[in-house]
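Complex 243.
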Amino acid sequence: MKLRYALLSDIHGNLAALDAVLADLADWPEATLLDLGDTLYGPLDPRGTWQRLQAESATRRVLGINGNQDRDVIDGTSSTTMDYVLDELGAAGVRWLQRRPASVLVDNLVYACHGKPGDDTRYWLEDLDDGLRALGDIHADAAGIAAEILVCGHSHIPRVLTLPDGRMIVNPGSVGLPAFRDTDPPHAMQTGAPLARYARIEATDRGWLIDHRAVPYDHEQAVEQALDRDRLDWAQWLSSGWA
Ligand SMILES: [Mn+2]
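Predicted structure with manganese (II) ion bound:
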């Protein structure tokens, strides 16, 4: 069996982007799909995204973990967008999220978390002032994790980084939201392109091969959905990849 994993993170209810990524994965049918969280929250199509992932699990192994905004959905944090998401998902959609763990070790090879180990609200790799966190700090967060390769999401920035022990940390970027602005602390994350990002990782005899993909899709469809929900911020992020 080939050790192949498709890393999808931060789909954020963007079904158009997810569909494009799954179509791109048609030539990788045996790969495990590993969803790194922040899967359904957003003013787009949370229900369609949930159902598309369920349908995909009929054809390949699909594993998922929760991110901070999946927890927000479970907790029912109050906002206009959240009311829309909860309405779309209903109790069954929330239960689907509740069954997912915060981190997972897959095949005793791949460790996955949303933010950093033990904290889904923090970036494992990025520092807002220096670009990257200090390598010692990044490495310390990997202590005690018995895995060949480590993967995370949350920052929406595609990246691969090598630890002093030779292991890699891979962030596939975001399938559904190529840029965003956040308030605590105030900052923007932006890729500069309205593309769906994901990554393929494969164990080879030379080590793990990391293939970052940037997939074009009908992002105007997602922009229209955001505008329908009065989310001008999301509409701008989706249309350009700039925040
Ligand atoms: Mn997140």
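The mean pLDDT is 97.
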